[in-house]
Amino acid sequence: MKKTLLTILTLGLLSTFNFQLSTAQIPFRGAWIATVANIDWPTPEAVGNDSLQQAELIVILDSLHAIGINAVIFQVRPTADALYKSELEPSSHWLTGKQGRDLTYDPLEWAVAQCHKRGMELHAWLNPYRVNIANMDTSLLAPNHLLRQHPDWFWRYGTQWYFNPALSQTRDWICMVVDDIVCRYDIDAIHMDDYFYPYPIAGKSLPDGADFRRNPRGFTDIRDWRRDNVNLTVQAISETIRRAKPQVQFGISPFGIYQSDGSTLSNYSDLYADVLYWVKQGWIDYVIPQLYWAISSTKTDYASLARWWAQAVDGCSLYIGMAPYRLGSKGAWSNGNEIARQMRLNRTIPGISGECFYSTRPLLKNPRHVCDSIHSIYNE
Length: 380
Fold this sequence. Notes:
Low-confidence stretches: 1-5, 7-11, 18-24
Strand content: 5-15%
Order of helices and strands: HEHEHHEHEEHEHHEHHEHEHEHH
Largest sheet: 8 strands, parallel, barrel
Number of strands: 10
Shape: globular
Number of helices: 14
């Protein structure tokens, strides 16, 4: 079988590190495997090729396990599609080459088994509202895609389509998808990232004014109403998981800034994601803020943000999202191993109980010997 570039890059790691992880209680050590646009898996040459997809994923999991990763956050629903066998949504074209094609194996079932075989957790990563990514032609959507069946449940912002967060129908649908995954697969968690309301586009307003006027639910400020729309979704998902399998966790990975003075983007004001409220209500089990900046970075200093989250999050686990993909770029990322510096800092901050790396392909390319550093720190 032809080796993929990813295989070539990662096979060398396997002989470097010891595969045995301690059976004692250890912190969360995660990595995101992104499937949208084939970022991490499968590679473009493995699309539609089951055996090559499985071979690639084995290399990824073995390589992650070798450096000490004990949890994989595996993207299974990037754009209201499925990288698993689903009767609700069509198979992903990033897996099959054409959205809606029948699957000849179940990637999620297979990935869960492979992770558990290695003593690793699998967290099923879903994007709740997104239907397509920028420049993805909606004509590529399968005939049974929900956007074609219920176009009134969606709105367009910029070049992308989204579930309308204001509608109870969309919340019910998302919960049905979550329930289906939780009930049918032996996953360890449901995971969602920072894509709730879309990131703002300069000069463009969100197309939800009519929905607000029609059903304000007692709110007078549309921004508070939007936050409540997301709150209702997160609460409903949490309750769905608890009813189906209480042992399955629910985790969120928000943008790294909760609220700001307006000089930077924030969850609360721009994405309408009130993460701390979800923590306070007990709806989520862990938070992984995406702190993809360097230590001493202007306005977005990693150290200050990590300490802020450690003080603010009370009632669920806090892990830190880190950015090995930035190693080798400008500024602090160009000198030495910024990830190793940040990991060592994490260990001095009470309340931080792990980290997660975005994303797998750049991590396993081992820039500035990041894998060596991670393995070394995890074995200190």
